[in-house]
Specification:
Eight copies of one chain form a homooctamer.
Chain A: H1 3-14, H2 20-29, E1 33-34, E2 39-40, H3 44-48, E3 54-55, H4 61-73, E4 78-81, H5 85-94, E5 99-101, E6 106-109, E7 117-124, H6 130-142, E8 145-150, H7 159-163, H8 165-169, E9 173-178, H9 183-189, E10 196-200, H10 212-219, E11 226-228, H11 234-253
Parallel strand pairs in A: 3-4, 7-8, 7-9, 9-10, 10-11
Antiparallel strand pairs in A: 1-2, 4-6, 5-6
């Protein structure tokens, strides 16, 4: 909660507009919607700039529907990640206008189309990384960013990367997604002057250790300017990239 | 190397200004300085926006001096990280104007004072995280950023964090540095609308596993908008934060 | 076996009321019931204050039925944890009055309703942690404790926690259940003056490592007053909390 | 901060006794003392029942002296853990009445002797676990608990444990400290009806993995009623045990 | 191959009874039977005292049948471990007299009933460890050992163990099988004067890490006289125990 | 891209045969074929001596068919690894002349039969390692190598290895494939004067850790002359072995 | 405590020779000697066949001297393991007749020379494993076993092992000690018909992981008849081997 | 031992030139030199093409001197790896003509200068990898290979690598040495048609995990044609590279 609001409430108390008890309740109670199984953080967009997002993997169709409906009522955009096709069908029986993207495995509802500004480049090492990349792309678009997709430019055929370097360099932020050993991140990081957000994927076998190997590799990159999010976490990368991409325009608007 | 330069060189060949052989050499050879033990990447600043930085831990005083001297000759700022006081003294015998900061354990030489723009907040959970924080702070200042230090506001006494929240929220980017379990990162991430760069430290004992525990914790944060760099890597966090902080002004200058 | 009983038996031998051979058997043999596949520890309630509990995961419906029947014969309450709906149905074919709670995945039979004393607060970070929380809640109620449920108050929306802090502070013991990075435990621990029992859950993906990340995080908490049980071990947390909650009344009864 | 205080401050604002701005500062700023390198959580005792404790391992003698002096000024007891003899000597040059216990490696200053109530049993498996045990014992005594020490009763000679079982059973809470495989915890847990707090130690070699093996073993104990703290964390165990031991008297005082 | 046989063959060469070429072949080729997919080590019984055993997990029914038939032809006993019921049925279609034990998940064919000597005690901590225990028991009986089964005597109810201690002490070798933390091994090891072979099982959840926790615990046991085999390796434990049990009689026969 | 080609293109620019813009495109764009979901590295054979190989595990039948068709159009041999029988059937519906080898789980199309030179020995420890061995064998044959298969000669029956040693020693390169502890690699390495490429397999259970144990064992071999590839990576071993085997003839052709 | 003694004491109670209270004390108290810092298990030899052994690593010279003196008073042999030369000198100032073996790093005092029976073969892979081997050898000799040392016969030069095979086969039990990958264990295990006790050592570097790699390798050995003790645990291996070696004679003496 | 020799010895027995007993001794005893602490594998050069190499790290100066002297007597070249300057001085007091290379930390004695054939390229990512690289270079030269050193061409400044690509491509085998994340290996592997041997180094900090991160990364490389040796194992890489480099000439000489 912003300090300004705190002061404002205190002033209302001083002016006898509200009682101290009311102020205390205001300060702590209003910022979420209570469901039986969840407390929806309806103040999140105001506080962090982005609405609450529903992580679909651990929830029942009923829980997803309930939270989505509550968000829609407040006119907030709805994003549900990690939804299997089966679960999506069940959710749509209850909330029919939640659109399902089967490649990215996400569900989306927008109160109105977002304006897309700036540019985020999403780069993958291989074809197998595309599902994670699409989770990132769809998230970034919902959050109002232009997205450029550059897929399958891993270092085993490094000329593919060089051919696309001009395109990549036009973005404000770059998301690099790679499994196996994740070397693409270091190579891109050494060639650009933008922030790079690295996403390790669980693509590979044996000592890939379900993505731990590229995760560790990316954290130890010999190139600077790279930060890392969790394995297969396309959503998290897009969230970060969107924050950075919007910094400039937000500053301008101040 | 930028595509524009490539084209430019090719045009010179077409115009018979240089021979093909000369162009080939130009294209591949000019962008570094060859020492006996190192190839100094003198083009890095042009390519990535930042000069080559010397990681001091694995190098002899002779190697550090040599590389620093080569960078100075080209008028590039010099930053050497992870330098013990003993090694610093030996380096200064050869390059006397390399200043040593014993808290941050870095050496610095600037051709001219940098202009500090924007603002990066550096937040630590405890007193023991200060060395890593100062490595970040000194790096960020050298790279032309204003820095605000907010130290020892860990969640065991969460009112300390809330008291400083207004200050933290004024920054464009936030670096959060924490050892033990690293929970401060998630709390900050849930309260701000700026990108947060998390730095795990090796502070703690037993099952802290030399920083692997907060590293994993930060990567799994329930708050979005957080990306992570390597354990104790204050330099890397500052490098990322600087890139983001400079994005706005760079855009403006286009 | 209590020293008092040992002395008592030895006195009977001295008084020729029982033979030495009978005493030896008494001392070691009487305290369990031998089945074909199990030795039921029927003395456990006398010795530790709680009856033997059946860990259902590794056992066949036949084994569960047999042990439950033996416990019922002695008038002991029956608690079977980790029972899938399919297995529960098969067990009920043999022991029809074992009630099944499908959220907590436990089966229960009580000789008579327990008296609920004191208060245990069960706090979860997310909606996905509810199954573990219900295993804890049902266990605590069977063992005679009042339970307050506070679900989905994770630190990504920390105002939800503060709104419930007064309720949490009224309990004698607090169980905090969280997956991902488990930061909620440290925040709660820094705000209360009761013992906190932390339960990491396997909720999360990638480098969550099936709960090892929050487990390690909780063990390294910067807040004091926290102890930890195994991943997803709601039963174990409730058992501990019940022991602590009953301490006061037990002392009074001495 | 307690809800009652919040209300109280708000009432003062309503009564025009303080300005809203003053209230806002009060609410967030007063609860710690700002040093150059630390923010001392002077409200912790009021909030959690225990004063802030100084973890000495990562701090300089100057920092320890400064924080200790600040706590003493407020009449709060001072406890510094993990202090080597060399560092203790340097601290005592500045704060001469901080007593040093070389077995437990802690420094202590008490404004007045604590009243010792209830009883905590501290049980170790071996002689090598004594340093951790004394850190626990000294902490527990400072926090106002009676302590009974039962050392070197590991399961390799289990008759030693049985001989001391009556003594152990008289305590309200039991701390069990063990290295190697940590089996003593499970045996004690199966024989008592009190809460057991388990402390793994880094005693052992090879696949003991610096205490990770007994840590994992204790978390997986087949006995119920056991919770675990970090490796070698005698302080943490005592803190928990003290909280539990004081529960009864606190309840009585309500 | 025994040195005596080598000498014998060399003597035959010297006596011109066989050619050098024939000797070379004899020395290296005769000791196995070549199948398309396997080289059956038919000399193993002569060399190590035990026949080749078929590890069924990674093999097709056809491969198992083929190898079993080859061993039967030479009058060697057949033991196939890790056979699921489905696979057993398919194998029996080809080799009908291979008996299947569904608890131990092994198949057996004996040319003639073995004479059972000495005694091996097989002790488990819980009911869930019985499958591994039966693999051990059946193996030990096939190899000519008397077996005593003592199941479900884990340390959570330690009086069960003491009640059976006399029986356990009558064996020549003791196999202790336990999951979770494996503490039973240390307790037994401290009470007996026979070799103890410890078998960790994958029974448990969360930080049990599929048996790695009891494996590490057993290797770090504070009791001496314990050696360890792989997780769930009932066969390996029985093989070792049989070797030890037969030592005495073998010596007598020398 | 070869330096010679770079020079050649530059010369054409100098001769005004092509424009600089055309050269720039040539240099970076021509070396791959762009599909919707992949950038096929059609220059790989020229650059590394081997065509691009399709890792089938993470791809849909449509993607495999598309890439295979593109490679066939250029007259390049096609190799798809890790294809299940179900997926193979679907791929063959689109590309009917892609042959499927069900033991090796690979699909193959050859523009013309390769000439097989030199010799690679493929040695396995057990019958269960054969699938990995066949992936290696089929790959090596496709790449123009003679292959000798020596299966099931693990060290538990070491005379089987000695009997085949002469055959193994005739190869130019040796691939050794083993699961469990992987000891066969060290034994072979100590007996031969050829390079040995070691392939750990995930055969085993418990503390085999899905092949990490033999992987680590092979990397720590006490015999020299051994290098290691990823777990179950028969393809990678064959690729390396083929490179080495072809060195001699390539040198001759220079 | 043996059941026979329990009965005997109970009979004395029945005969009024001792009071019940005296019996209870006898049963639990007499079996150890209480020092300030240790409870010496003086009954261990009677119970397990071997005296208590002092693990020197975690103890002060004073503690070692005190325990050694107490054992000597009872006429028990004294063995102190893991003693550095410096610590040994300090211990000898107090207990001058404790002999120090600097290769094995153990101290020994024998009331009378042991009779050496049977035979234990101690086999090492390399020269660097000799310290662990000597700890085993000295322990075994103190416990009354004949010892044969066969050092530096690792599989990199496997003919060295074969040359010593006849000697190895004459032992009743074989201890195999190896670092790096530990392959020697599997080779020996496949060639002998005696129990093999494997000791991994921390010899090696990089991914040897301080002995975890050979430890895991030995547990996964493809040869049967192998059991494993902790890393560098020469003492533990000798203790086990001695138990097995003495089995035959003990049986004979029954 | 070669099959030919075996046959030859057997023929001599048949011809009564030697007795069977002598043959048996010949077959097993002759191939090493017995010292007190080592069995020197003097036949290794004949068997594997390379002499026994002394791993200096775990050995005393006396042991190194003794083994070196024995090898010199047989006219074999001597290579001792991992020798600190202090140890080297002590060894030279006994064997004065063993030359010490302080960068590579190896000692060398050559009976006569080796002829250097072919070419091995040794490529490092950074300046800090040079010690490992020099261990490889010196080893390769001793074994008769020409060596080209290309140091500090890591992917953070990838133009340095491209500038040296022509030089690298002239070698027959390439050794790539890198710490941090090891990405250089994948980039080189995608650009060359020679076998690449990858050496991870322990250069880096935090989650580099002493070289485990680049080790895992290299094993998971997306480029084919790469095999890996142990962390920091420059010697092992050179040994492999030498074997491959000599293949061609050996084949020619057949």
């Amino acid at each position: 909660m912003k300090q300004a609001e705190l002061l404002n409430n205190l002033k209302k108390v001083a002016a006898h507009e509200i009682t101290p008890q009311q102020a205390a309740e205001k300060l702590s109670e209003i910022d979420f919607t209570e469901l039986n199984y969840a407390k929806i953080d309806t103040a999140r967009k105001k506080r962090t700039g982005y609405p609450e997002v529903i992580y679909g993997a651990g929830k029942t169709p009923e829980q997803i529907s309930g939270i989505a409906t509550a968000l829609k009522k407040q006119g907030q955009p709805v994003l549900v990640t990690r939804v299997t096709p089966e679960k999506a069908t069940k959710v749509q029986e209850k909330v029919s206008d939640l659109n399902y993207n089967s490649t990215a495995q996400v569900m989306i509802w927008e109160p109105q189309p977002a304006t897309h500004i700036g540019e985020i480049a999403i780069v993958t090492a291989g074809t197998s990384d595309i599902q994670v990349a699409e989770e990132a792309a769809v998230t970034a678009e919902l959050f109002g960013n232009q997205v450029t997709r550059i897929y399958d430019v891993g270092v085993a055929g490094i000329q593919r990367l060089f051919a696309k370097l001009n395109v990549i360099r036009q973005a404000k932020v770059i998301i690099v997604i790679a499994g196996m050993e994740g070397a693409l991140v270091s190579v891109v990081g050494g060639l650009v002057d933008q922030p790079v957000i690295a996403v390790p994927t669980s693509i590979g076998y044996g000592s890939n250790l379900n993505g731990m190997t590229p995760l560790l590799g990316m954290l130890n990159s010999c190139s600077a300017g790279i930060s890392v999010v969790n394995i297969d976490n396309g959503f998290g990368a897009a969230y970060n990239a969107s924050m950075i991409n919007h910094l400039a325009s937000k500053e301008a608007a101040r």
